């Protein structure tokens, strides 16, 4: 029968019979402890700042907070998802709907999704419901009906940004809420 040769790994803490820590080791441990405390404090400050931004309702601040957050992947995913809807709508309206009129159903679905997102953002941004409705009607109308290429493409670009940012903010907010509910601490 073979005997296993196991090495005994020394413990990190100094025990009896071991020489005391050198000044360099003490300084290194203190720096590590301070760095850990600073990171924890920075994370708490970021969580409080993000909470204050969400409660402020300012859409620009919310978008900036999303893009500065630690989870940029979900922000990029939200941007891509939100931007796809107006792009699909524009393409179907200006390229495909003449040949296949049944595609107006898709256009209606895109407009419904986009209109709710843009309305919520515009109501926060402009502070007035009627202005928000007018803004949504203008943007969606320009996207759908304008035959001036630069105008319809401008509307498309604005809608892509607004829908993308709205989706990214929503994903980040849901991610933060689920993180808080799962372990009580904002991530």
Helix and strand sequence: HHHHHH
Q: CA-to-CA gap between the ends?
A: 53 Å
Q: Give Rg in angstroms.
A: 27 Å
Q: How many distinct helices?
A: 6
| Class by alpha and beta content | mainly alpha
Helix content, binned percent: over 70%
Largest sheet: none
Give the tally of β-strands: 0
Overall pLDDT level: 80
CA-based shape: elongated
Low-confidence segments, given as residue ranges, are none
Strand content: under 5%
Written overview of the protein:
It is a single chain. The protein is an all-alpha fold and about 190 residues long. The chain has a domain of about 110 residues. About 75% of the residues lie in helices and about 0% in strands. The protein contains six helices and no strands. Helix 2 packs across helix 6, helix 4 crosses helix 6 and helix 5 packs across helix 6. The chain is elongated and about 90 Å long. The protein starts with about 20 loop residues before the first helix and ends with a helix. The mean pLDDT is about 80.
